[in-house]
Design brief:
This protein is α+β, with helices and mostly antiparallel strands. The chain has three domains: about 220 residues, MetI-like (MetI-like fold), CATH 1.10.3720; about 220 residues, 3-Layer(aba) Sandwich (Rossmann fold), CATH 3.40.50.300; about 140 residues, RNA polymerase II/Efflux pump adaptor protein, barrel-sandwich hybrid domain (OB fold (Dihydrolipoamide Acetyltransferase, E2P), Beta Barrel). It contains 26 helices and 21 strands. The strands form four sheets. The chain has a six-stranded mixed β-sheet, with helices on both faces. A five-stranded antiparallel β-sheet has the order 2-1-4-5-6, with helices on one face. A hairpin with a 2-residue loop joins strand 5 and strand 6. It is elongated, with a radius of gyration of 36 Å. Pfam families: ABC_tran, BPD_transp_1, TOBE. Its main location: membrane.
């Protein structure tokens, strides 16, 4: 037997042991550039840096204070600073509205964008000539201004005008691009909270666009500071009046090179500071300062005993006990009202007519694109109910002669995205909603804290809105919506992106708050657990039409639509009606007949009287299109056809197996391409040798099959 010495084993282990990468190198995350690209990048950087280095070698650094202290240098320096600050202020005041206008869609906007950017591309001297032809003594407007003794050309005002003309496009193009590509969710959310156009603009749109506004302002400031061609053509070069630093540098370079270089150093230094300011993450810096100040004030301190284990780990889900112990504001208990919605939107192919009783929860379900979000938008006032009517508690919100805008309907909307304002704190988000309703700041702060406490989020009050997890953001959005005192709460799948635990907590929270305040709730969901936990009634939409509605238990236990059948795991077989109400059947395309239970019979595994459909089933017409609803537990699988005379026997091919709790869900495809599913035990799968691709015999209990006329 070969034996390995300890020394050899140690050497072998050292070879096989993986070598640790040096910390911070991140080799796995690297994506190196091709060598040619790197070389070209170095050459490009050199083309920018080398001229600056070369100029630096010619500057008399020791004499810089004396050179900059001359009267001509001082006059040029302060004139440049004064005029470029004024010009930048004018650019901001005029450029922001122009950028906002150009970011919208309207006839001719593309041409307008070209005109707004044109001064960036034309030679500065041409810009100066254009200004002179317009505001000069013999210009289009200049002659009238001269008559009123308001000279423009060859004055300091001309310097400012020249700087505005060439610099404002930099601000406009930067801000307009950011506004045009922005996500408008925050603005839509603000509208549903009751914010008017001015509040939306000043407190939501511009703060969120602040980084682009800062970059554009800095670029405009830098361009104003370096303006030369338009200034000398329109304003001339009068010392102390129109001779800015670029003009002074140009004139001094022939007679006093040292002073010209000194002024150039100052100009480059100012430009570096201005451009460098655009690279700073100002929003992150402000957020950090805000958080630090609030932590210093003690707003973030929460006793450990108040936190559940989930909160201590990730802060995402509050304990149920803590939420239950928090008392919600008591105003408006039982304030829910009836909702009637009827409208037609041809462009979306949605025609809806439904009612929601006061204080009840109605779920709106259906396949994607069926019109659920359209209904929510119409109810909330984000879409016009064309040729229709929206009434809440007898108050007309929308009809051909009246339209109440979003935020003034006493309707709160929560969509899939929470829409928490990232530039505000959590407390600021809720205060914003209350301020939109005309509440004073002090009262809004008090009520906002109460609303956050009611959803178990008071410990998040000082946290920035952009630093929340999904569950936290959902709770904050709910508190903000309820703070507006709605009569109707519309939930458009706000729990879709949450994990299982967060969903459970949100369901409990929504159910408790709606019960406490007696709210009417319209819920859009694809989750059957949301239906069973929250909804008392269900409305099913399909292709923009209401195809089924009724109490939740009745709809789920005896579905009449394909969507609800699939939602509950029921297979839907299509064919033509064969038989009558006493002995209904469905003839499949293969010619085989599936027999079902008699109409009105609530036996066969249904939920007692809640599944009873007597007097509600439609008349079956032989030969008409129909469907057979087959629940998974009605299907038994065999290797071969069993003995006896079972009524419903089909042959199916196994297309997939999936674990479903303690059972295994077996997906099957029939000869004509229709699909079934069966729920069997893991032991049955092993005993029958069920694998993908194998053919099995499917025996379907007729007493559990429902035969219905097919709609649509």
């Amino acid at each position: 037997m070969n034996q390995t010495s300890p020394t050899a084993r140690s050497a072998q282990q050292s070879v096989q042991r993986p070598v640790r990468a040096l910390p911070g190198r991140g080799r796995a995350a690297r994506s190196p550039l091709p060598v040619l690209v790197t070389v070209l990048a170095i050459l490009g950087g050199s083309a920018i840096i080398l001229p600056l280095v070369g100029m630096g070698t010619r500057v008399s650094w020791g004499q810089l204070p004396q050179l900059l202290g001359t009267p001509s240098a001082q006059a040029a320096l302060w004139l440049s600073i004064r005029t470029c600050l004024i010009a930048t202020l004018v650019c901001v005041v005029l450029g922001i509205p122009l950028a906002l206008l150009l970011s919208r869609s309207w006839p001719g906007v593309r041409f307008a964008r070209v005109l707004a950017i044109l001064p960036m591309t034309m030679p500065p001297v041409v810009a100066g000539i254009a200004l002179l032809a317009t505001f000069g003594r013999r210009g289009v407007f200049g002659a009238y201004l001269e008559a009123w003794d308001i000279p423009i050309a060859f004055t300091t005002t001309a310097v400012v005008l020249a700087q505005v003309f060439v610099a404002m496009p930099y601000l406009v193009v930067t801000l307009e691009a950011a506004l045009r590509s922005r996500d408008t969710l925050a603005e839509t959310t603000a509208r549903t909270l009751g914010a008017g156009p001015w509040r939306v603009l000043t407190q939501v749109t511009l703060p969120l666009a602040a980084p682009a506004l800062a970059r554009g302002t800095a670029l405009a400031l830098g361009r104003s500071l370096g303006e030369f061609g338009a200034t000398i053509a329109f304003a001339g070069s009068r010392e102390g009046v129109t001779r800015t630093m670029p003009l002074a540098i140009y004139l001094e370079k022939e007679s006093d090179t040292a002073t010209a270089l000194a002024l150039a150093v100052v100009l480059i230094g100012l430009s570096f500071i201005i451009v460098g300011a655009t690279t700073v993450d100002w929003s992150g810096l402000v957020g950090a300062l805000l958080t630090a100040r609030q932590e210093r004030d003690g707003q973030e301190v929460v006793p450990t005993s108040e936190l559940s284990s989930n909160e201590e780990s990730n802060g995402d889900v509050p304990s149920s006990a803590r939420i239950a112990s928090a008392k919600a504001p008591q105003e408006g208990i039982g304030r829910g009202q009836d909702l009637q919605v009827a409208f037609e939107l041809p462009q979306r192919d949605v025609v809806v007519d439904l009612e929601v009783e006061a204080g009840r929860t109605t779920a709106l379900i259906g396949p994607n694109g069926s019109g659920k979000s359209t209904v929510c938008s119409v109810v909330a006032g984000l879409l016009d109910a064309e040729n229709g009517r929206v009434v809440l508690g007898g108050r007309v919100l929308d009809d051909p002669g009246r339209f109440v805008r979003a935020g003034r309907r006493q309707v709160a909307l929560l969509s899939q995205e929470p829409g928490v304002f990232t530039h505000m704190s959590v407390l600021g988000n809720v205060v914003f909603a209350l301020r939109c309703q005309g509440v004073s700041r002090a009262e809004a702060t008090r009520r906002a804290r109460a609303e956050l406490a009611a959803v178990g989020a008071e410990h998040l009050a000082s946290r920035p809105g952009g630093a929340l997890s999904g569950g936290q953001a959902a709770r904050v959005a709910l508190a903000r919506a309820l703070a507006t005192g709605p009569r109707l709460l519309v939930l458009d799948e706000p729990m879709a992106a949450l994990d299982v635990t967060a969903r459970q907590e949100m369901r409990r929270l929504v159910a408790r708050r709606c019960a406490e305040e007696g709210l009417t709730l319209l819920l859009v969901t694809h989750d059957v657990l949301d239906l069973t936990a929250l909804a008392e009634d269900v409305v099913v939409l399909d292709r923009g039409r209401v195809v089924e509605q009724g109490p939740t238990a009745k709809v789920l236990s005896a579905p009449r639509s394909d969507f609800v059948a699939h939602l509950t795991g029921t297979a839907v077989l299509t064919g033509v009606i064969d038989g009558d109400a006493e002995a209904p059947g469905l003839r499949l395309p293969s010619g085989q007949v599936i027999h079902g239970r008699p109409q009105g019979d609530a036996t066969g595994g249904q939920v007692g009287e809640q599944g009873h459909r007597k007097g509600h089933d439609e008349v079956l017409h032989p030969g008409a299109p129909g469907i057979a609803l087959v629940p998974p537990d009605a299907v038994a699988l065999y290797r071969q056809a069993p003995h006896g005379s079972p009524r419903n026997v089909l042959t199916g091919r196994v297309t997939g197996l999936e674990r479903s709790g303690a059972l295994v869900s077996v997906r099957l495809e029939l000869e004509e391409g229709q699909r079934l599913s069966a729920a069997v035990t893991a032991g049955a799968v092993a005993e029958l040798g069920i694998t993908e691709g194998r053919e099995v015999c499917c025996v379907i209990k007729a007493v559990q099959v429902r035969i219905l006329a097919r709609r649509g």
